[in-house]
Amino acid sequence: MSMVALVLSGAAALLVLAVLGVVCGRTGAGRPLIYGGSLLVCIAGTVIAGMSIAGEPSTIVLPLGLPWLGAHFRLDALGAFFLAIITIGGAGASLYALGYGRHEHEPLRVLPFYPAFLAGMTLVVVADDAFSFLFCWELMSLSSWALVLSHHRDRENTRAAYIYLLMATFGSLALLLAFGLLAGPGGNYAFAAMRETAHSSTVLVALVLSLSLLGAGSKAGLVPLHVWLPLAHPAAPSHVSALMSGVMTKVAIYAFVRIVFDLLGPPEWWWSLPVLSIGGTTAALGVLYALMERDLKRLLAYSTIENIGIVFLGLGLAIAFRANGMAGAAALALTAALFHAFNHMLFKSVLFFGSGTVLVATGELNIERLGGLIHRMPYSSAAFLIACLAISALPPLNGFASEWLMFQSILVSPDLPQWGLKLLVPTVGTLLALAAALAAACFVRAFGITYLGRPRSAVTEQAHEADRYSLAAMIGFAALCVVTGVFPGLVIDGLAPAVHGLVGARMPPQLSLPWLSIVPIADSRSSYNGLMIFLFSASSAILAAFVVHRLASRVVRRAGLWDCGYPGLGPLTQYSAASLSQPIRRVFGSYVFRSSERVEMPAPGEMGPARIRKTRHDMAWEMLYEPIVAGVAFASERLNMLQFLTIRRYLGFVFVALVFLLLALALWQ
Amino acid sequence: MLLVLLLAPLLTGLVRKAKARLMRRQGPSLIQPYRDLRRLLGKDVVLAENASWLFRVVPYVICAVTWVAAALVPTFATGLLFSWSGDLIAIIAMLGSARFLLALAALDIGTSFGGIGSSREVLFASLAEPAMIVLVFTVALVAGSTQLSTIANVMFAEGLRVSLALALFGFIIVALAENARIPVDNPATHLELTMVHEAMVLEYSGRHLAMIEFAAMLKLLLYVSLIACIFFPPGMAHGEPSLRAYAIGAGSYVVKLAVGGLLLAGFETSIAKMRVFRVPDFLGVALMLGLLGTLLLFVSRSL
């Protein structure tokens, strides 16, 4: 059996599980059966992806779908890499859900859709014709929509699901049109035929590029198409949030890479301009939004937007390099982008798992009401901390390795000949650095307010450590963050076949280098060794602690905290999440969110309280979506009068329309 | 690597002494920081009741990470043994790790002092770090490398460049902010409303405080060495050095440190501390200088 057939049978097994979920969702055996089955299928899928990433592409045509086309499936290196992202992320989420799913009140709303969602994502990365691609894409969208709606009694969630459905439909429409243009008038919907066709017309190429940016970008969460993401991702149960943020956005990246790097043919340099500028903007804006957020899961969703921006930034650089024939640099940028996508799957899963454990333990996601959880949840807080360090791009963890590669590829870009790029690349480089630094601020806030300090409300009093399955998933993924950070060469070399297939070059082999350093271009230019930094730091920290405890003092006295002479300062005197980010809001927010603060003091002698009023605007909603909504409302209001006409008028309309169409037909021929 | 361990408190002592003399005070002796560290190490740790494991682990990690970062900066010779294990970007990011952990430790006890320090620190960092990265871009584009040994080797041959002059100014601004010096922060202050770094470490005592103080000293030394290594490499032993070259290198390194420390003391005495919300403008200058330098180099390699 070929590899792709194995993947298809895995997806079929997941669909069978979905049916079983309907049958035995209510019984006690439902949860272990569905999640355990998904876990096994995902582990098998990871093995298949690992085996086929370096092998020859395998194809299969099934007599399904359009009768004259059949359903084409193909597993190549790129597909295998993204399959690995899906299956690893899916395995983690399934393991986590074995424990977490116990707290689900209406399991029948989750269990059937969860395996179907996994199956949809798996099928997208092996689909090899436009019809099956879009079909599987819709399967993924609709099953995830159902999962977003699983807690449907909450009005917020139904609104989130509605907006998600609208945006998903819009995205699919854009992709449908893009594939239509790629297929041409002959209707060659198989990807193999699209690859053969030379797409020479500039208008057509520009259309396909912008449609794929719209279609894939709306699923991935590029600004300003991101509005659904912070609503929908947190609304789902936490393991599904982890899948949507960590994995489904990667499937969207896959769609973009597949269309732009593979199907559309050799790139022109100007393709990179929109990708770079949207990527840079998304990275910086996403993290600023995250810094303002006080709902833990929403904060994580906004940070997903930031990371998607970083990935698109790398893709834009790769397009620019490839168009100018700099294959080595293109390989570097593309590797950085895909590596970051992989890393983001790892740490964002841990973070969403952590938010789920917080939700189970306290019933609260508003971080202003949390605090001090590190004492009650020591293991999950440690895993959460590692993921926070990783997502803030701090060495020696994996987020730093991929962003380091990104910076290295920016440093190659002065060789680009075009002036537009020469001016744009340093600017987006600055945005990337800004996003990384703000992400660190954001996760100091997220971890510090949630897990550290004194409890801010009574909800944390009953908090308890998460169950074994959840902890295993969190700690396992946190360990993977460390491993891929310390041995980045593993992933880089694994990516080499996929990168070579897309840009015609690969990064030099890394695993054979002494001490497992990574050297993107040349030794003298730059090198980084996560292993060394990790070993040096860890050993000197342990040595320092040992020496100090041995030779100096080891006495610990416990005392009250420093209260400045005012005993009995309550937990509410602590810094809150809003006050922690207030300086940043004041510095950046006045431009980005038009935010303002006003202090209203009562008049002297008046007994009323002083108030501080904050205002903040979401420009994406106000500038883009509200006008669209208003326009739609206006148009429907106007068209509404069509409903109340007499029969004569309707007949008149029909007649005019007929004449008009006949005229058009006559002119056409 | 051991050299930086030994010299770091001396540099801090020198700065304090020079500042005191400039204010016509006698000032503590040069080796007072060593005595302070010894005293702190011998004292008991007084931990707040709700301190978590993070609070107790962080001082050692910060100290270790800062030390490893400082050890990656070439001091008196360019051929550093382990220089391949991290480049300039990695060094900056390691300092970022240390700061991340310290900002978390400040939030651990749950006092508003820790919060205020942490909040301001992440604000400054969110501007200083990108500024530093862009400045590194400038330097790396001139040298064609982010590897510090290579940069130092290239800089021997470099003449005056507009972009490097911009970068030097930017580096100095960032170094002042990162080391919590006037005009961004005052290392000697104990007035609550003006503290940033001191507010974060307010709950620390004994050996933990010693570790953090020592990390701060190392960081100051790191930045002075970094500026010396990138912008003033003459005197460093490079190529196939002899023992004599090493001696000259070591001597010139000490002189550079002393000059750096004295300049810092002079600058700090002659300027007042800024309001917190003026600091972003100050750091924005560094960011813009770096961006300008990088843009110049993107436009023409010869600027």
What proportion strand of chain A? under 5%
Low-confidence stretches of chain B: none
SSE string of chain B: HHEHHHHHHHHH
The shape of chain A is globular
Radius of gyration over C-alpha positions of chain B, nearest whole angstrom: 19 Å
Taking the sheet with the most strands of chain B, its summary is: none
Radius of gyration of chain A: 27 Å
Helix/strand order of chain A, N-terminal first: HHEEHHHHHHHHHHHHHHHHHHEHHEEHH
Helix content of chain B: 55-70%
Which range best describes the helical content of chain A: under 10%, 10-25%, 25-40%, 40-55%, 55-70% or over 70%?
55-70%
Tally of strands of chain A: 5
User: Mean pLDDT score of chain A, rounded?
Assistant: 92
Short account of what is shown:
The complex is a heterodimer of chains A (669) and B (303). Chain A has 669 residues and is mainly α.
